Amino acid sequence: MAVNKMEKMTIIAAAEKEEEILQAIQGLQAIEMKDFFHSNVDSTYIEKHFASTMLQSDGYQKKRYQTMLTEIQDALIFIERFSESSSKRTSIKRKILTLQSLEQGFDEERISRYLKEVAALKSSLLDLEATKKERLEKEKWLSRWQYLDVIPQNNSLESVELLLGSINSANQPNFLTDLKKITSIYVEEIYHSEHHVYYSLVYLNSQATKVTEVINEYSFNEFVYPYDMLPKEAYQQNKEELAMLVKEERDIKRKLSSYRDHIEELYLAEEMTYAYIHREEAKKHLLNTSYFFIMQGWIPVEEKPDLQDLLPNDEVYITFDQPSDTEIQTDIPVKLKNNSVVAPFEMLTEMYSLPKYDEIDPTPIMTPFYMVFFGMMVADIGYGLLMFLGALLVLKLMILPRGMKRFADFFLILSFPTIIWGFIYGSFFGGALPKVLFGIQLPFPILSTTEDVNTILILSVIFGFIQLLTGLMVNGIELTKRKRYLDSISESFAWQGLLVGILIVVIGMLVFNNDGLVTAGIIVSVISALSIVIVPIIQTKSKVKGLAKGLYGLYGLTSYIGDLVSYTRLMALGISGGSIAAAFNMLVAFMPPVARFTVGIVLIIALHALNLFLSLLSAYVHGARLQYVEFFGKFYTGGGRAFKPLKTEEKYMNIEKTKSKRIVEE
User: Fold this and answer.
1) Which of 413, 386, 324 is nearest to 613 (CA)?
2) Which of 41, 437, 524, 602 could make a disulfide contact with 501, Cβ separation 3.0–4.6 Å?
3) Residue 76 in contact with residue 266, Cβ under 8 Å?
4) Transmembrane stretches, by residue range (predicted)?
5) Higher pLDDT, 81 or 344
6) Count of domains for the chain
7) Would you give the DSSP letter of residue 354?
8) Quick check: 1 pLDDT over 60?
C-alpha cells in the first residue's frame, strides 16, 4: 500500500498504426503521455536523418472535433429547452461501456446530419421569434388606435389636417382647455392608458400655427399611421398573422421533439467527441514522421502486461525504462495504490497534497485514525444506520461517476465506526438505549456523555497522543531509510522519548503514586531533551548556533501541548451532537399527543436531518483538520503531481478499462 511504481514507456510504430495504438492506450486508461521533445532522450539522430520527413501537427482535427462538440452541446440545450415536450426532460441513464463499443456506436455522418437539421430548426425558430416579437409590438400600439374610424392616408380634404398623437395624462385638462380656445378644431380621445392619452385632432390649415403652439407646449408625441386600412382591420390582420406564427412555432417544436428519440445518441456522441479531442491533444506529445512515430509515457508497473498484450510485438517496438533521479524529482507523476477499504480515503490525502514519488503514502496510516475520530464525533447508531443504508442503496441502485462512487464508499465505511461509537455512547437518534432488553441486562452506555465527560476527554487526548507518536515514528523510520540518522534522533525518536517520559511521570504521580515510575519518566525525558539539544550542536559548525537551534527546537514542546488540546474536539463534537439530538426529541415529546403524532413526526424528521448534516459536516471537516495539522505535520511533506492518464471525459458514462484485447489482427 504505497505510491505506485512507474516506468517510462517508449513506443515506436508505423505511422498508419498511430490512431489504433492511441485508441488502445486511451481504453487502457493507464498511461500518461510524456512530451517526447522535453524528455531526456537524445533526438539528434532522428532530427539529423529524418528532418525532411518529420511532420508538424496543424491541429485541424482537434479544431474540427471542438467545433462538433460545441454544435452537439448547443443542439442538446436547444432540444431540451425548446422542444414541445420540454416539461418531460430526458436525462441519460449513466451506464458502463468500453471505449471500443462507444466508438463503434458513433456514426459521425448521422450525427452531422442531425446537427444540420437541428441547426436549421433553430435558425427558423429564432427568425420566427424575432418576427413574433415585432408582431407583438405592432399589436401593442395598434390596440391603442383600433378605435380610430378613418384612414389618415385617405384624407382627401386639402383644407383640413388630421393629426394623431399622445400626451402625458397629467397634462390632459390643460391641454383640452387650450385646444377649446381654437375655433374649428375637432378633438377625439382614442385611447387612455395609465400614463398617456391618445388623440386624433382635426383642424383647418389656417389654424395650424395655433395648434402647433399648443402641442409643442404640452409635448404632444405625434404618431404617423403607416397603413392604408383602418386600424381595426390592421389590428385584426396582425392577430391573424400572430396566430399563424404561433402555429408555425408549434410545428417547429413538434419537429424538434422528434429528436428526443436521438438524444441519447447525441449524448454518446458528445462523450465520443471528448475522447477524440483528448486523443488529438495527446498527439502533440509525439514525434511524427512520414514513416513512423515515437511515443513516450509513464505507466504503472502492474499495467505493463496489459499494454504488452494489447500491442502486437511484431508491429510495435516497445521498451520500458526506470525513471532517472532527475525525473523522479521533477517529472514523474504519482498514483496511489491501496486496498478497497483505504482507497476512498485517498481523497483526503489528495485534498491536502499528493506525496512525492519517493515519499511514503500517508493514507493507510491515517485511515484507522480518521475512522475512529469520525465515529467518535458523530457517535449515533441511528445516524450510522442511515449513512450505511443511504450509501449502500446509492451504490447498488445507481451507476455513479467515479468521484461520487468513492465518496459513497467513504461514507459507507465510516458508517461502521459511527454505529460502534453509537453503542459505546448508548445513543440511538439522540435517545438512550434500554438498560434491560427481554430480561437481559445490557452494558450500554459503556461511556455516558453526561456522567463520563472527563473520561471521554482523557480518551480523546490519549487517541491524539497515540497519533502524534505514530507520526513521529513514521518520520523517524523515513529519515533512517534516507540515512539521516542524527535527524531521525532529533526530529523523531528523541521527541517520542520526551513525550513518553512525560506520560510516565504523569501516570506515576496521578495514577499509581509511584516514585519509581516518576524517576524513570524524568530520566527518559531528560535524556530525550538533551538529545534534541545536542544533535544540532553536533551537526552545526558554530556550536553556539547549534545550541541556540537545539534550545529553540526544544521550545517546540509547547506546540505538542496545543496539538493534544486540539484532540479535545473529539469529545466536544460527540457530546454536542448527541445533546442536540436529545434536545430535539425532548422538544417533540413536550407536544400534545395530537400534535406529536402529526406535525411532530415531520418536525422530528426535519430536525434530525439537520443535525445529521451538521454532525457529518463537522466530523468530516474537523477530522480532516486533525490529520492535516496535527498528524501530517510530523512526517509528511507532499507536493507530488497527480497521475493523469490518457482517458475519456466520462461525462455521461463510465468507460470500462480495456484488458487483454488485441487491437490489430496478427
Assistant:
1) 386
2) 524
3) yes
4) 369-395, 407-433, 453-472, 493-512, 518-538, 570-591, 597-621
5) 344
6) 4
7) P
8) no
Per-residue confidence band for 208, with pLDDT thresholds at 50, 70 and 90: confident
Here the cell at position 232 is 381595426
Contact 295, 11 (CB under 8 A): yes
User: Which residues is 176 bridged to in the sheet?
Assistant: none
Q: Which residues contact 469 (CB under 8 A, 6 or more apart)?
A: 496, 499, 500
Q: What distance in Å separates the CA atoms of residue 179 and residue 274, rounded to the nearest whole number? A: 73
Q: Do 328 and 358 touch, CB atoms closer than 8 A? A: yes
Q: How far apart are CA 443 and CA 426, in angstroms?
A: 9
Pair type for strands 653-656 and 95-98:
parallel
Q: CA 488 to CA 239: how far, in whole Å?
A: 89
Distance spanning both ends of the chain, measured CA to CA: 38
Please check whether residues 579 and 549 belong to one and the same domain.
Answer: no
Q: Is residue 62 part of a domain?
A: no
Query: What is the number of H-type helices and E-type strands within the chain?
Result: 24, 18
Upstream peptide bond of 445 is cis (omega within 30 degrees of 0): yes
447 in the Ramachandran plot: left (φ > 0), alpha (ψ -120 to 50) or beta?
A: beta
* Domain, as residue range, for 358: 337-434+442-452+568-634
The residue type of 287 is L
Contact 435, 443 (CB under 8 A): no
Chain length of the chain: 666
* Amino acid of residue 16: E
Decide if 570 contacts 463 (C-beta within 8 A).
yes
Closest C-alpha among 485, 379, 494, 486 to residue 427:
379
pLDDT in tens, 305-351: 888 888 877 788 999 999 988 888 888 999 999 999 999 999 999 99
Which CATH number covers residue 203?
Answer: 3.30.70.100
Question: The C-alpha cell of 141 is what?
Answer: 400600439
Q: Which of 215-224, 437-446, 557-566, 594-603 has the lowest mean pLDDT?
A: 437-446
